[in-house]
Amino acid sequence: MAILKEFREFAVKGNVIDLAVGVIIGAAFGKIVDSLVNDLVMPVVGAVVGKIDFSNLYVLLGPVPAGTARSLDALKKAGVPVFAYGNFLTVAVNFAILAFIIFIMVRQINRLKRAHAEPAAAAPASPPEDIVLLREIRDSLRR
């Protein structure tokens, strides 16, 4: 019974719930970024480079059987070894965009935290002049 109580306390702690919410939001955010990359960025980059779709960029590493279409999917189904670097480029660009967006978000959150942070405790006020003079006299008498 004690272990169940411990588990319940652990499971309902704010950190575990926050983590679960973060994972769920992260999955949804990943889909948004994936759409951003695949639907908006990659077509523009592909148009500039001269290719429409990076995911179909590949280098043949073996012979192609007769009658096999020259698309990446058809070549993979036929068992032809291919070096499919286009998919890697798509994933790398996706990662770079995701990392940049998260960087911007964290930067803005930190900026907001600094703006709303409680001002640091004010430095203690300097003692009145007569107290300073009395301390100096005390210190000189000690010598």
Keywords:
143 residues; mainly alpha; Non-ribosomal Peptide Synthetase Peptidyl Carrier Protein, Chain A; two-stranded antiparallel sheet; 5 helices; elongated
Descriptive overview:
This protein has 143 residues and is an all-alpha fold. It has one domain (2-116): Large-conductance mechanosensitive channel, MscL, domain 1 (Non-ribosomal Peptide Synthetase Peptidyl Carrier Protein, Chain A). 69% of the residues lie in helices and 3% in strands. It contains five helices and two strands, in the order H-H-E-H-E-H-H. It has a two-stranded antiparallel sheet with strand order 1-2. Helix 2 (14-49) crosses helix 4 (85-116). The N and C termini lie far apart (70 Å). The mean pLDDT is 81.
How much strand content do the residues show? under 5%
- CATH H-level superfamily title: Large-conductance mechanosensitive channel, MscL, domain 1
Q: CATH class, anyone? A: Mainly Alpha
The largest pleated sheet is described as: 2 strands, antiparallel
- Backbone CA Rg: 31 Å
Mean pLDDT: 81
Shape annotation? elongated
Overall number of structural domains: 1
Given the helix and strand composition, which structural class is it?
mainly alpha
What strand order characterises the main sheet? Answer: 1-2
Order of helices and strands: HHEHEHH
State the CATH architecture. Answer: Orthogonal Bundle
The number of distinct β-strands equals 2
